[in-house]
DNA sequence: CCAAAAGTGTTCTTGTTACACCCATGA
DNA sequence: TCATGGGTGTAACAAGAACACTTTTGG
């Protein structure tokens, strides 16, 4: 049972005029040339005896910001990350999604209306892990990257959100050409193939992959080779940004907020 | 400025315990062998002098129902339609989306908290128009089908929602094989081609279309022809439901609610 | 016999799959 | 000289695009 004042009214308890019924959650995937990871935070437990729980970075939406703005703000506040293109993929609204006993202590500590029903709007993003060094904020004890194949039990319905986010990511990655910011400026075709294989979770034939990718005319061979490797050094390439832009490869069809 | 009681509290003014911050809107597309239409309702104006405004069927979510349930309930209550597979496609959360002066009168008449910020979760569906006879409810003066090329100015941000719904519909229609319930049981290849052309808003070559569709093995030719037409009568077909089911053609990958 | 829509085949190009061996380097 | 990953070509097949004339019916 709860009672609240929102909107134009500013509740004195609550410097941040939050909407108690709507949140955003961010499924940020990070690629590190080896594995696909997802960004998690560890909730600060109520008291030290309670085992801390992991969760997606997410929080209530403020009354005067859009959903896109909220997603960017929340990610920045909880993890320090900014300048990441977040793409909305689904709203989760099961009436019981914040009612599990495992989440009660956290809700009572951090939410003004712990009983409020919360619908969450989920966003995903894909970044180069080493470009971003997430840092824990006051709300979270830790922020860490976690292999998508090894996600622990998370708060609320966040495991389901991760799964649906992954599905969306893979669908989008195969359909459009997202994810070209994930490699070093100069890279080899094998690195690119590994990127494709890790994200789509499929294997490709080396010759066919190279044929296909070179045919698309989005790579520029450089007058350089790998150095210091203990095998035949590979040709280095960079992306043809002009071509990619024409194909609408960057950031879907919406506009960046931050 | 508003104050409210929700959730476990049942407000005596409000037999239906609605969440003031979250709504659902339904973009129901109807195909009538000629055109693609969208289902609209006409809002009951506050007083007779105000020009009535059209809108998508939509309303606030109840505290104890899921978003999918809400979408189905709202559509049924406002238009009488049920048994329609609704698919969530996007949440709209601009803080100003219910702040336009054009919508003030309606909000003040029908909403307990007219100032509340409302995030809406939009659903789309595609049905055979003549299978459904929408009927106006107490909340709406009229319910009617409207050619998607001629949508009038709508309440709130509903024009934008229709546009995004159409984009989603077309993308899904081309990707998967939805929409096979839209033709009569027995139909001609020309009818099927017209369906494709109207929904995707493209033209196809007759020979190539037939080759492609027959190759897929989803049609069964019937020992029957058209009758009473003033030209060469066409072969009739029916769908190979067994094949279609295997291809996962029906209703995406989620489960029907009602 | 006319109007109207049905029905039909070929060619060209492009993309997809499957598959196995030699090459350049540093240790 | 060896281990390691880099680099290459061909054949078979499937899918997509372009294109024009004959057929059957009712009026």
**Which two protein chains have the largest interface (Cβ within 8 Å of the partner's Cβ), and how many residues from each?**
A-B, 32 and 32 residues
Chain oligomer state:
homodimer
Give the fraction of residues assigned to helices of chain A: 25-40%
CATH architecture of the largest domain in chain A: Alpha-Beta Complex
Overall CATH class of the largest domain in chain A: Alpha Beta
Main sheet characteristics of chain A: 7 strands, mixed
Uncertain runs of chain A: 5-14, 251-258
- SSE pattern of chain A: EEEEEHEHEEHHHEEH
User: Termini distance of chain A?
Assistant: 37 Å
CATH topology of the largest domain in chain A: Nucleoside Triphosphate Pyrophosphohydrolase
* Number of helical regions of chain A: 6
Beta-strand content estimate of chain A? 25-35%
Chain-wise SSE layout:
The structure is a homodimer of 258-residue chains.
Chain A: E1 2-6, E2 18-31, E3 36-43, E4 54-55, E5 58-62, H1 67-79, E6 87-92, H2 104-110, E7 119-128, E8 140-147, H3 158-175, H4 189-200, H5 206-215, E9 219-225, E10 235-239, H6 241-246
Parallel strand pairs in A: 2-7
Antiparallel strand pairs in A: 2-3, 2-5, 3-4, 3-8, 6-7, 9-10
Chain A binds a DNA duplex (27 and 27 nucleotides) through helix 5.
